[in-house]
Amino acid sequence: MALRARALYDFNSENPGEISVQENEIISLHSQQDIDGWLEGSNSKGERGLVPASYVEMIRNDTATSHNNSTSGDAYQGSRYANIPSGGFDASYKPNNQVENFSKAPAPAFPTFSAPAQHQQQQHNYQASQGSDDDWDDDWDDSSTVADEPGVVSGGFRDFEGNGPSTHRISTSSMARGGNAQQAKSSATVSRNLNRFSTFVKSGGEAFVLGEASGFVKDGDKICVTMGQYGPEWQENPYPFACTIDDPTKQTKFKGMKSYIAYKLTPSHTQNQVSRRYKHFDWLYARLVEKFPVISVPHIPEKQATGRFEEDFISKRRKGLIWWMNHMTSHPVLARCDVFQHFLNCTDEKAWKQGKRKAERDEMVGANFFLTISTPAAPLDLQEVESKTDGFKVFTKKMDDSTLQVNATLNEFARKQIAGFKKEYQKVGQSFKSLSQAFEIDQQTYSVGLNQAIAYTGDAYEAIGDYFAEQPRHDVDPVMDLLALYQGHLANYPDIIHVQKGALTKVKESQKHVEEGKMEGPQADSIRERCNIISFATMAEIQHFHHIRVRDFKSQMQHYLREQIGFFQKITGKLEDALQMYDKA
């Protein structure tokens, strides 16, 4: 029997030996064994070559074929402003990671046919890599375990209402109409996704919709979705706060054998300063990605194997962490999460270990995460939800394309300013100064003022050239940092949308089973109710994304234009000074 697979995403070949495929295109495979994450096959056009294994799912009647769906931990380091000499401009123009189109799953590196480098970890496939400066080998981590409180799970939310540690046993069976556990079990007659690497499966969305989630939920674990002016939204954090990241300092341990950079974090709601390393951010990010399958956790700046102690790299990483922290503290759910609060506030070594172990054993992840969501009584119109989800998918795709275009345009613009514009203005300035030197040969007393004015004009143009070289770090650089952060968000949304679409598919299947007499109405209703919970959470997350997007881009564009205005005013001032020199000549 010929092996066939269906493309889950669009893939455009960029290297010899690869073939392009479109989403849902059927591919004939020549072997089901992947080679370092790549499969060999032929597309519908008859072209033969390689496609990433993580981009396709096998079409088989038995169990799904597994394949590697992990991303490479090594990030390609490209130049932010291409073809710019390493010296002569601000250190912040050093390497910056590029970002692939968000609609693609991560393509693995292939040893012979150089595959596109991937620079964003997908939200639900994240694995904490083991970089040399990021190993948990210091006194803040060991193999000790912590005895959990009976019936209490960690990783929830701080109870701002003071309700105490009351705990409730919740299962999807009790959420079904009539509370019949057997009804929830029998809902498994809805077909399962054979691709066990599907995001809908790995996130726990499928298990939750099919009624297989069960766990203890504390009052502080509850995540509330409310109906706002524009639809579902996360309940606001009653105690909003911010957090600064300052004073990156190189520190050592093991008598100087191990070096690392520590950052000082100061949350506004406690004013207690804590010291954190990059590996602590990396660990926290992994925990959050695992816990929140339908929340876009912002990506942290990527690892770098070399040059970690160079001043420009430290400065750029700090800027990235500041952007990351701002998005964390402004998210109503992420900001209140216990593991995040533990990260921000814990200063005691023993308490840090205990909190870390509890977070790593958090039961409210995967399918159980959806048990913690509290929604309004009135259900959503699932047809409207599907329409909005499809619209958001189109929007994010277009936004991703646009951010890539803006990023490339600004990159080229900055490159021209740093190299081209500076060089051209300096050439003009040098030509004026040469003219002045020629006039000085005349040695006429009445020409001295003119000679000085022309020489000053030459100096002014050389200074303007330096202005152009320095300007991108004030206006272009912050915009590109913002784009990099949002490209990370956009890379998360295909997985979030996939969970939502998977839940809607189960609802449609259950309705069909009811019509065919294969399922009782209450069973289908319970599936619909659980899909409703996922829908509320997804719609709330989409609403939050739009809110912060408007806030961030408005603020950043205002900053960019102010810097541009100030820049040209400075140039104008320099030219006006040169003009006044001729009045004195």
UniProtKB/TrEMBL annotation:
Feature: compositional bias, Acidic residues: 132-142
Listed Polar residues bias regions: 164-189
Region of interest called Disordered, as start-end residue ranges on this chain: 95-189
One Gene Ontology biological process: endocytosis
Membrane topology, record value: Peripheral membrane protein
Record's subcellular location: Cytoplasmic vesicle membrane
Domain of life, source organism: Eukaryota
Protein transport as UniProt keyword: yes
One GO CC annotation: cytoplasmic vesicle membrane
Pfam families: BAR_3_WASP_bdg (PF10456), PX (PF00787), SH3_9 (PF14604)
GO molecular function, one term: phosphatidylinositol binding
Amino acids binding a 1,2-diacyl-sn-glycero-3-phospho-(1D-myo-inositol-4,5-bisphosphate): 277, 279, 317
Cited Gene3D superfamilies: Arfaptin homology (AH) domain/BAR domain, Phox-like domain, SH3 Domains
Ranges of biased composition (kind: Low complexity): 105-130
Record bears the keyword Endoplasmic reticulum: no
This protein's UniProt keywords: Cell cycle, Cell division, Cytoplasmic vesicle, Endocytosis, Membrane, Mitosis, Protein transport, SH3 domain, Transport
Recorded coiled-coil stretches: none
SMART domains: PX (SM00312), SH3 (SM00326)
PANTHER family: SORTING NEXIN, SORTING NEXIN-18
Family: Belongs to the sorting nexin family.
Official protein name in the record: Sorting nexin
Source species: Clupea harengus (Atlantic herring)
Lineage, top ranks: Eukaryota, Metazoa, Chordata, Craniata, Vertebrata
